[in-house]
Amino acid sequence: MMQQHVLRHRLKKRKQSWLSSFWDVANAFPSMSHDTMDAVCREQLEDADAILMKQRHRRALVLLTTRNSEIILVSIGCGGMQGDGPMPDQFGQKYNELLDGWIEKTPAETAPAYITGRAALPEGPGPPVHVGIGGYADDTTRTSIITDPKNMSDISNKLDAEFDIALGKAKMKQNAGKKELMVHFQGPQANEYMQTVHTKQVAYKGTAKKQVRYLGGWPAIGGSNQQEVDMRIEASKVGWFTMGKMWSSNTVWCRSRLLIWRTICSCHSQKRHCEDKDVSRSSPSQ
């Protein structure tokens, strides 16, 4: 998140238009094909271990209870079990490979910058790294340069199309309904282009927003995090007065109190963010 925040700030200082897209993979862990997961096992493990690992997802069953209290065992068919220990590594290994292929297939001129390893290292500079890519698990974001504001929708649709192709190699799909994007234009017609994008006068997938929720934070077009800070401060006040004397109680473990505190602050600030978003949508000025 910090990398994306700094990148957008630097592009803005350079008077450069940019597009930040945020994707979500539909049913990420349960949707990856078993053939893809088998390939990860073969590539990373010895033959004997690979056989055992493949059995974890190939023979996984889901227990269902019917209305008549009958028990049914159903084969999952694809993906792995939610919470299964090896799944994050299996998924991440292949998903990162798909992202690497996706980067190679998209226009190089939209890449904001590349960085290499320190020249002082014994092995010399490392391979180029696309600093516009960020993500955690299946939540992926990408910031791209817009050389011509008129091509914003073409760039967005190109990224979407290539992302679909990359995911399709593992039998996965993006959750188009959850896709969001932020776009910032520079130049004399910046406001006009912004209005065009936010009123959907150009064709693109997803919803254009001035502020999005991503990995627990609320990145905004303007770059300021003041609204997020204010919401978290208010959430802290609400959490403190809601639970009353529990915070000073010696009968509740300190670790438990800290967990409750963080949960209250996160849930309340998220609720406030949704309320503010609903108000802004109904505002005549929008």
| Total number of strands | 9
The global form is globular
Number of domains: 2
Q: How much β-strand is present in the residues?
A: 5-15%
- Given as residue ranges, the uncertain stretches (5+ residues, pLDDT < 50) are 116-121, 271-286
Sheet with most strands: 5 strands, mixed
Distance between the termini: 28 Å
Number of helices: 9
- Give the mean pLDDT: 78
The chain-level structural class is: alpha+beta
The sequence of SSEs as H and E is: HEHHHEEHEEEEHEHEHH
Q: What Rg is obtained from the alpha carbons, in whole angstroms?
A: 23 Å
Strand order of the largest sheet: 6-7-1-8-9
Approximate helicity band: 40-55%
Describe the overall structure.
The chain has helices at 2-13, 28-31, 34-44, 47-58, 87-105, 152-168, 190-198, 226-243, 254-282, and strands at residues 18-23, 61-65, 71-75, 114-115, 129-130, 133-136, 139-145, 180-184, 207-208. With 286 residues, the protein is an alpha+beta fold. The protein folds into two domains: 2-208; 226-282. The longest helix is centred in the last third of the chain and has 29 residues, at 254-282. The two termini are 28 Å apart.
